[in-house]
Write a structure and sequence with these properties.
The protein is mainly alpha-helical and 221 residues long. It has helices at residues 8-21, 33-40, 44-56, 75-99, 102-120, 124-141, 145-153, 156-165, 169-187, 191-203, 205-215, and strands spanning 60-63, 67-70. 72% of the residues lie in helices and 4% in strands.
């Protein structure tokens, strides 16, 4: 079977998408087209196509004849994306409790240990990747990975605010503590307790937004 060839515009799109998600390109940052062209080593056409796709994702704003910039974080969209994530994950957790096995607990533990290593290394990107790895276990184990992919593809604002929160020590320490509690609950066979902890865990961002707005005022609309 012949593998689909990735086009230049798709490569640029994926690279810039990652840079935006992990705040290497910061909210509100003006995009230097000449630098982007030089870094990508391509003509304007694939770069333009990549930017148009990022605009469709509401991650880039394009101003004709003026330039482009990374969108700031929209708190209304954060709430919409958080609601979607919370609703779907809390629906999946009871299903996970029914199928949870030793192999799933080991995967959760592995992701949790990766988060701790990321904290020690002060690496918010690795921390967020490990956080996603932890939560993805619930969807993969229940055959709901398609829903996980939907969440990932529709959460540009929510994902950026999550990595911001991971840069505040008191916030990412709380994440690890809550993950420990969720893992213990599932290890004890107490799915109801795990669901209760996870509900609090997924809604905590509401209380963190004020902290993040004060720390990073230029990142928000």
């Amino acid at each position: 079977m012949q593998m689909k060839r990735i086009t230049a515009s798709e490569q640029i799109y994926k690279a810039m998408y990652s840079q935006i998600m992990f705040l290497e390109l910061k909210p509100g940052e003006e995009l230097n087209m000449q630098k982007l062209l030089k870094d990508a080593g391509v003509s304007r056409s694939p770069l333009r196509d990549a930017l148009l796709k990022l605009q469709e994702d509401n991650l880039v704003e394009i101003f004709p004849q003026k330039g482009s910039r990374v969108t700031k974080i929209n708190l209304k969209q954060v709430e919409v994306e958080r609601f979607m994530r919370t609703t779907l994950e809390l629906a999946v957790l009871p299903l996970f409790a029914q199928v949870c096995a030793k192999e799933h607990l080991l995967k959760l533990r592995s992701a949790l240990e990766s988060q701790k290593i990321a904290v020690e290394g002060q690496n918010p990107k690795d921390f967020l990747n490990a956080d996603d790895k932890f939560h993805k276990v619930f969807f993969s184990a229940t055959g709901m990975e398609r829903l996980w992919n939907l969440i990932q593809n529709q959460s540009g604002n929510y994902r950026r605010i999550r990595i911001l929160s991971n840069q505040v020590p008191e916030l990412h320490d709380k994440v690890i503590t809550e993950h420990e509690e969720v893992l213990k609950a599932f290890s004890d066979g107490d799915g109801n307790k795990a669901l209760e902890i996870e509900k609090s865990h997924l809604t905590k961002l509401i209380t963190e937004i004020d902290i993040l707005e004060q720390k990073y005022p230029d990142y928000f609309e």
